Amino acid sequence: MSGLAHYLHMLGFFVAGSDVSANEETAKLAAEGIRVYRGHKAGNLREADAVVVGSAIPENNPELCKAHRLGIPVYGRADLLAAVLSSFDKSVGIAGSHGKTTATAMCAHVMQACSGRCTAHIGGEDIGYGNFFVGGDKYFVTEACEYKGNFLKLKPDVAVILNTDKDHMECYGSEEKLLEAYAEFAYSANTAIVCGEDRIARELPGALKFGLMRDCDIFADDIRTSGGKYSFTLCAGDESFERIRLNVYGLHNIYNALAAASVAFRYGYPPVLIAEGLREFRGIRRRFEFLGKMRGAEFIADYAHHPREIAAALRTAGEVFKGRLFVIFQPHTYSRTKLLFSEFVSVLKDVENLVIYKTYPAREYFDAEGSALTLSEHLPNSLYIDSVRELEIYLRCSLASGDCVLFLGAGDIYFAAKQLLLRQGTC
After folding, report:
1. CA distance 157 to 138
2. Average pLDDT of span 5-32
3. Is 286 left (phi over 0), alpha (psi -120 to 50) or beta?
4. Burial of 6 by CB count in 10 Å (0-12 exposed, 13-18 middle, 19+ buried)?
5. What predicted TM-score, i.e. pTM, was given to this entire model?
């Protein structure tokens, strides 16, 4: 939402908005001259031609109710994003249960290196581009979120699907319906680009496929790693091209890089420019981000909140750090924890020094079956903690120089980690 607000303001529209609390994004918008209200109140909504709401806003929101009462048109965030997308000559929508933000940012760097005329809407903070980068009017690259079927409102020229792992089942009800939605998104585009190792590839036989397998249209060969950062030879068909060197950690980022490279191949750009764009990408905040140190132990934050993402983060940490690993995991929503409960237990059951931190509920009400406490009770190797103060005491008594603390989750665990560092005077 903040990226779209920034873009509309840049185009000359009068923009105002509200959030439940002040944060870094609202501070940036205010600094640009955008009026930002703290909290949702009917009085915040003054003269407006339209109101745009995120998917998590309930129908009884006072500003939304006032808009309906006054007859002001109301649009969803995805409606506005679709309108922005349609104003560009060529557009790329990147979807998937995880990896969207990183792949979108990588694609933005690649397309800007290739064309010099790319604008991108990114679901997180790219270290170089922020969450909305304006670089030209030819290509538009955006994250396409599957929550509540929002990505079906987008009609991109190129639809990219990274994976179709089970998530947001409270919206879809079954994996079959989820897969159907991804297929519909792919068919809405002129070209579909999909991971050849994901089940979606079977549903879209005509799609351009990327992956680590040689039977993919675009694949990685001669994969090497140095300290958790990977390099590979970019290949297409029987041809080998540039050596790609990534400046971010983790094997999973090879898939994201291949997705971005596939988009550039689709538009006919040479591999040397693709390699340049990927080399320029330095990462996303909250994606294996170094935050600081406490008692000589490094704090690393990662957005991982799905079992497969957690597995990738744990694997990367094992490659990068040789000391003891402490893992602080905050479940994100009760429904996701309940739906994927056995998968969470499976991926966390062998982790030493594991803390389960109180659930970040987002838009949901308490559900004991999907709570962090219930998850911790099924993980004998874990300790349950529900306050920053308690977490501080635990870490102060446990950490030593050379250790690593991995903070996992999409909720406010990131800010808890920063708060701990601020108390140490090391942030």
Report:
1. 12
2. 91
3. left
4. buried
5. 0.86
pLDDT interval class at 22 (50, 70, 90): confident
- Token look-up 């990505």 returns 151
Let me know the angle formed at the C-alpha of 211 by 273 and 306, rounded to the nearest 5 degrees.
110
CA nearest neighbour of 356 among 310, 423, 400: 310
Interval 255-293: pLDDT, tens: 999 999 999 999 999 999 999 999 999 999 888 999 999
Tell me the residue type at 336.
Answer: R
β-bridge pairing 354-357 and 325-329: parallel
For helices 388-398 and 413-424, angle between their N-to-C axes, nearest 10 degrees? 60
Tokens of 93: 């929508």
Q: What is the C-alpha to C-alpha distance for residues 101 and 246, in angstroms, rounded to an integer? A: 16
Question: Which homologous superfamily is 88-280 in?
Answer: Mur-like, catalytic domain (3.40.1190.10)
Query: What is the third-level CATH fold of 2-76?
Result: Rossmann fold (3.40.50)
* Token pair for 201: 């590839």
In 101-138, the DSSP E strands lie at 118-126, 130-134
Residue 142 dihedral angles phi and psi, to the nearest 5°? -140, 150
Inter-residue contact 347 to 408 (CB < 8 Å):
no
Question: What's the CATH code, domain 289-424?
Answer: 3.90.190.20
Give every CB contact of residue 339 below 8 A, 6+ residues apart in sequence: 166, 169, 170, 370
Q: What is the DSSP letter of 398?
A: H
Q: Nearest CA to 181 among 190, 169, 191, 195?
A: 169
- Return the domain boundaries, the chain: 2-76, 88-280, 289-424
Greatest extent of the chain over all pairs of C-alpha atoms, in Å: 63
d(CA 128, CA 325): 29
Whether 198 contacts 163, CB under 8 Å: yes
CB-neighbour burial class of residue 401 (10 A; exposed 0-12, middle 13-18, buried 19+): exposed
Q: Tell me which residue has tokens 């840049």.
A: 10
Q: Are 216 and 210 in contact (CB under 8 A)?
A: yes
Q: Is 23 left (phi over 0), alpha (psi -120 to 50) or beta?
A: beta
What would the pLDDT profile of 322-374 be if each residue is shown by its tens digit?
A: 899 999 999 999 999 999 999 999 999 999 999 999 999 987 889 999 999 99
Structure confidence at residue 352 (pLDDT): 94
The set of residues, in sequence order, having a beta carbon less than 8 Å from that of 295 and lying 6+ positions away, is 395, 396, 399, 400, 401
Mean pLDDT, residues 195-220? 94
pLDDT for position 401: 94
pLDDT value of residue 168: 66
